[in-house]
């Protein structure tokens, strides 16, 4: 069963700040930057100088580097923040994902956009961020940091792939996840702002890339929960697909060619209530059902 999808207007050209926890020179992030830019968006990449996976919401002032950036993408003794010599929109921050995202929003946006950004995106992360992993994920940490700065924000993660340098051949999974992230972003923002309710973020996890799951059209997006529903404790779920019991992200992502879409509260990184889920569902024009 599939919910009715509303027709989408032309893509809005947005100012987007993007970050991750795998590092500014990682191929998933660079592929996403290229895909979003090719779709007509103005994008600032502001991400850690090194891999900071598992750092959660840690936030400390950036400091000068002693060692080179990851993959030798900047030399030893580089300043605390810097950018690609040929593209000032590609920036490293020698600190944590949350710090990097905030630097992109509060400093780089003023310099490069001359306006506040419209949206924040973290990832796609190399590896999924499901359930309790959201508490430790730097990808989620960057996303929540953006919400606290007043922006709507999305965290993207994917099952397939390995950490790959920006100057190596781009893995097919990086290209697929970048295209899916762009597709989802355009879908979320097509109706115009507000893209998300205040204090809300979205956690999206992409499935394993495989035969029959290797193009954007193959992947179905399903509304899910970050954590299993516990009666009398968990917030109620919106009623979709004939039920008010949403599947968990883990069930969705490992049930085939499905991507999980969970609606979270920035205040505690837990599931939002049915009212917020319904707002997001309407903004997206409906989602698919898990067969």
UniProtKB/TrEMBL annotation:
<dbReference type="InterPro" id="IPR030048">
    <property type="entry name" value="SurE"/>
</dbReference>
<feature type="domain" description="Survival protein SurE-like phosphatase/nucleotidase">
    <location>
        <begin position="16"/>
        <end position="210"/>
    </location>
</feature>
<dbReference type="InterPro" id="IPR036523">
    <property type="entry name" value="SurE-like_sf"/>
</dbReference>
<dbReference type="InterPro" id="IPR002828">
    <property type="entry name" value="SurE-like_Pase/nucleotidase"/>
</dbReference>
<keyword id="KW-0378">Hydrolase</keyword>
<dbReference type="Pfam" id="PF01975">
    <property type="entry name" value="SurE"/>
</dbReference>
<dbReference type="GO" id="GO:0046872">
    <property type="term" value="F:metal ion binding"/>
</dbReference>
<protein>
    <recommendedName>
        <fullName>Survival protein SurE-like phosphatase/nucleotidase domain-containing protein</fullName>
    </recommendedName>
</protein>
<dbReference type="GO" id="GO:0008252">
    <property type="term" value="F:nucleotidase activity"/>
</dbReference>
<comment type="similarity">
    <text>Belongs to the SurE nucleotidase family.</text>
</comment>
<keyword id="KW-0479">Metal-binding</keyword>
């Amino acid at each position: 069963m599939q919910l009715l999808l509303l027709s989408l207007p032309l893509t809005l050209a947005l100012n987007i700040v993007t970050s991750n926890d795998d590092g500014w020179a990682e191929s998933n992030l660079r592929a996403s930057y290229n895909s979003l830019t090719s779709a007509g968006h103005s994008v600032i990449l502001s991400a850690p100088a090194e891999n900071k996976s598992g750092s959660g919401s840690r936030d400390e002032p950036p400091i000068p580097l002693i060692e080179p950036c990851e993959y030798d993408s900047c030399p030893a003794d580089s300043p605390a923040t810097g950018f690609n010599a040929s593209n000032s929109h590609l920036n490293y921050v020698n600190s944590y994902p949350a710090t990097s995202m905030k630097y992109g929003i509060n400093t780089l946006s003023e310099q490069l956009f001359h306006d506040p950004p419209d949206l924040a995106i973290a990832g796609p992360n190399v590896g999924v961020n499901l359930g309790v992993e959201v508490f430790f994920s730097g990808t989620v940490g960057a996303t929540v940091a953006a919400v606290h700065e007043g922006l709507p924000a999305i965290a993207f993660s994917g099952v397939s792939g390995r950490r790959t340098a920006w100057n190596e051949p781009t893995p097919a999974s990086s290209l697929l996840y970048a295209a899916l992230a762009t597709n989802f972003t355009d879908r979320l923002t097509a109706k115009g702002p507000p893209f998300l309710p205040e204090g809300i973020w979205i956690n999206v996890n992409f499935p394993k890339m495989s035969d029959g799951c290797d193009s954007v059209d193959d992947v179905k997006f399903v509304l899910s929960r970050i954590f299993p529903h516990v009666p009398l404790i968990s917030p109620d779920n919106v009623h979709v697909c004939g039920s008010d019991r949403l599947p968990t992200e883990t069930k969705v992502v490992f049930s085939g060619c499905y991507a999980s879409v969970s609606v979270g509260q920035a205040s505690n990184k837990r599931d939002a209530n049915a009212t917020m889920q319904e707002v997001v569902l309407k903004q997206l024009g409906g989602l698919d059902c898990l067969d």
